[in-house]
Every structure is written in C-alpha cells, then in structure tokens.
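User: Show me sequence and structure for the first protein, then do the same for the second.

Assistant: Starting with the first protein.
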Amino acid sequence: MATDAKIGLLVPGGFYGTPPTMAEFNGFFRRADELGYDSLWVIDRIFHNINIIDPMTLMACAAAVTDRIRLGSSVLLFVMRNPVLVAKTIATIDYLSGGRVTLGISLGGRDNEFEPMGVDVKRRVGRFTEGLEVMRRLWTETGVTHHGRFFDMDNVNVGPKPVQKPGIPVILGGSAEGVFQRTAELADGWVSGGTSNAETWGQAWEKIQGYARAAGKDPAALDSGKLMYCYVDDNRERAKSELENFTHAYYGPQYDVENNCAYGNGDQCAEFINRYIDAGAKTIILGPTWPDAGQIERIWSEIVPKLK
C-alpha cells in the first residue's frame, strides 16, 4: 500500500429495507481483516425511519470474527447514553478484541432524540465533557468517586479495564467551532462526517491544529479523519445511483452525492479521496452501501494503490 494514510471502512449500518444477515456482516468483517484495511467503523442513530443497526453490537460482532483490524465508532451519540455504561461496554469490547478499539463520540443527535433520551439540549456540552471525564477515570482508576452536575458516584469500579493504556483513544466528531476546540484540548483526534468538501475539511483541520498549539499540545499527535461514502464501478452514473439510493434513505433527498462521495472507476475515486489526504487527512473511512466483500476488494485493488 503506497499511501501513508490509514484506510478504513465504514460498516454499512442503515437500511431502508431488510438489513443484512449476521453471515453477510461476518463475511464483510473477515474479508476486510484479510485484505489489510486499517479499521472498521460503525455509525450511530437512535431514532430513524429506516433500520439502523446498533453500533456497539456491530463492534462486538466484528471483534469476534477478526484478528487484526481496529474497530471504531464514527461516531457514537455520547450524550444520549450513560457514560458509565459506555465505559463498561467499550472497555469490554477493547478487552475481548485485544485492544483494538477507537471510540469516536459526539454531541450530536437529531432534534427528536434529546427529549426522549432525557437530555437537556441546552446543557449537553456540560454533560458531554463531564461524561468524558467520568468514562476515562473508570477506564484507568479503581474506587472512583465523582460528584458533578450530571453524575454522582462513590467508590465505584468498572472492570475489565481496557487493554490499551492509559485508555482507549477518543476522537470527536462534528463541525462546530466548539468541537474543534474540544478536540484539541480533550481528545486524541477528530473525524468529519459525510458532508464536507476538501477545502472546508482542511480549514477545520487547520483550526484544530491552532487550538492544539494554543493549549500547549502537539498537533501532530492528533489523528485527523474523514468519512466518505464510496462506490467503485466503471459506469460512473450507476455508481452515483447506488450511492443516492443509500445516502438519501439516511440523510434525505437533499444529500449531495456528487460533491460528498467518491464514485466511479478507481482513478476517479482516488482523485476525489486524494484531495482530503492533501488537506491533511490521516485516516480515510470509506463507506460502501452494503457489506459486500466484492466491493471492498475493488476498493482495495483499484483505489488504494492510487492514493497519496
């Protein structure tokens, strides 16, 4: 593999019709591991009008049938969940996988998700940062005592601890200025979702590096990721149609495949992806429309060798 960028795959997780079977997912996970992809990433959405597979369940399934490939979330809706339970579940997956987890988290969520989950939108930033502190302490300490605005506990312990020391890498997702600053100050990296062009992505990454320097941190120590949907086909219009069917079910018909996705033959896809690598992306997460081993074999053989 010629590129210095880490090439991962987004596990298809949202389906308008019947979702894939366990056998289809397992075949996809195994083939990605065999081919040499760096990582598998899962998405999160609690409420939707299509079927969304639970991300932590998918990560556990992938851990069970792979040996090498890293497992990540891009991204988990962290404020919708109790950080103690997230700490427990993710630490368990890290333990069972032999230390292969990266946890991507966000403030995100759609407007109809906060109230049913008992989350005050106006206080979500405070809940997020306090929850992150609690989670990291539970990964590294025993007898944790914490009394904050949102969470209270005395002398508690979560085990097993993560295999990775001092804890599981945490990256943040989002496109707001506050996310850029929190990434620099609190996280191990940043990942951008499926809607941003290379210029906008590069500007955001520059801001994050500036915030890191201001906080006395080395920007080079931060990971920088870009998720994008991808379909390889010598017929460019057919590839675009496949992506439209998939992404419009998840995002809605306003989603712009032409400017947000890599599609067409290997050269066309690589040219699109390389714009983000040129802008500083260290991790590229490519999202196929189905857990199809044939498609990820084409990505690996026809796109990856042409990346910078």
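Switching to the second protein now.
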Amino acid sequence: MKDVASENNKKKVAVIGIGPVGMTLAIHLQEAGLEIAVCDLDKMKTNLIKKDGVQLIGEINKKTSFKNVFSSIADLEKFNPDLVVVSLKTTHLPSAMKEIAKLSNISFGVICAMNGIDVENMSSEVIGESRTFRMVINFAGNLTA
C-alpha cells in the first residue's frame, strides 16, 4: 500500500486520549501513512506505550508502536500537528481545548471523536466553527493494560 503522503510531506495528526477509540484511530491513521503522535495525561499509560507499543486484540488484531508519545498537550507543540483528533471524556474537553488553542500550527482543525451531545460546540467556541469537525463513533471496547 502506498503512503497517502510522501515521507517528507506527511500530514501530522495528534490523537489526544488513548482509550479504546483513540488507540484504534491512531493505529489505523498511522497505517494509512500519516505521521501520528499520541497524547494521554496518564503518564503510566504513556510510559507503557513508549516501552511496549499498543496492541488491539479481538475482532481487530494489530500491534504497533509510535515514535511520538506525549503526556501533555503542551508538549505536542514539538510535534507540530496539522490536525488534532480528540477522543476524551466530555468532561475533560473544556480544559483540553484551552491547551489545544495554544498550539501554533493546527492548519486543518480539530476532530471530536467522542461521545456526548454537541461536543463539537465546545471545540468551535475555542478554535472556530470552520475548523471543528465531529466524528460519530459506535464502539465497544475495554483497556486491559
């Protein structure tokens, strides 16, 4: 499979929230040829990801690692993402959006890949309606480690 972008011009996507949905999205986006950074505030989780990578087990069986793993949104500035995918609990979104707004190069915008009614409104209030997208997801899964 050919990458969607050349190695020198890969689009960069940061996935914030590495639960079942965020992890699945990060793996598939990386397989599609995008350069991925994963970010989760749980330092134990990010340390495990740095050490062992991630593994999906069940209907989808995949194992991968990420070279860009962060435990704070502010640290994503080093990665310089074109797009941010947010996969958090709705109650965490307002504080996350304040940090995301400080990132300087989000050229495309923010995709809210999370449950909750009107979560995209919280994002659009911070970065603008034209740069906010909503992804509807039906997913059942659990983290085992």
